[in-house]
């Protein structure tokens, strides 16, 4: 009896340590659920507190048949429910006539509208079909069911643009200033006389000021020279209402691999950068160069402490020797004036990522990213973890 009591006391003493164990889970794994590859993660916290992880479910490579899928977590990312198909490629074959190609659906860019007085908590999901058509759908039940997708291509794609991608990562809703409530969707395009994925690329913002009833183009990087090839982009709203925009430089001649810009009118236009050769953008030298890859941003708070802007991407100078490996965080405590290195989240293959607060205001940040085992060459799954940046 004495031995039993001692054992119970030890178990109870250990319970707080067990409860505080780091959250780490694999959400999607290559080869599962009939799909060869899972890529392009996007993360959003639904209005009911569920975490939704979206990605592209591929039967092959970038141009193979691709469905848009998601999984749901009810416990802050510790466990995930079954795979759910949000959009299936077969449903879009009528767009392409009698002999449709293998249809790619992707580039998820979710955002929750917390300020719509008629549909508070509605979740919007922009996505693309064949990187040509732009669609939006929405859910009024936190991602359980989705409205029929609406084609907004004519509203947000200019003549002469070929390749088109939304995100890929979360979008944002503005919470400050005269544009409060605006939905801002980062996107990018290529200019090509023949369409497709050739030609120079640039960034654009898709905006809605009426809670998704209509959509239009905002700022556009249409400089189109080989100095900066702005591409996949992520955005946050700063404390003064400006937008901070960070983009992938797709093989441009600008120093480094990341560029940054600001917008004081809610994404309608760029602020002057002081660097005319890059239009609104300028190099982002304080962010140690990741490889050429998509990266993600989040701005968070912690019980009244100063806000923190978090940048997430692979570290080209990490322990695995560079390239798309070694996911690292970087922090700014002064709304992007300066940056400092944060912790290494994952050693080994690491590529695209997204972030969302697990419990807003409590300093808990969820990270969803493409991961692989240390010592291997490429990502084979999409993992999730929770970090506490204010404790770093």
From TrEMBL:
CDD domains assigned: Sialidase_non-viral
Main EC class the enzyme belongs to: hydrolase
Residue ranges of the TM segments: none
Range of residues in the leader sequence: 1-19
GO cellular component terms attached to this protein's record: cytoplasm; membrane
Chain intervals for the UniProt region annotation (Disordered): 247-268
Enzyme Commission numbers on file: 3.2.1.18
Family: Belongs to the glycosyl hydrolase 33 family.
Name of the protein described by the UniProt record: exo-alpha-sialidase
Organism field: Caulifigura coniformis
Lineage, highest ranks first: Bacteria, Pseudomonadati, Planctomycetota, Planctomycetia, Planctomycetales
Encoding gene (name): nedA_2
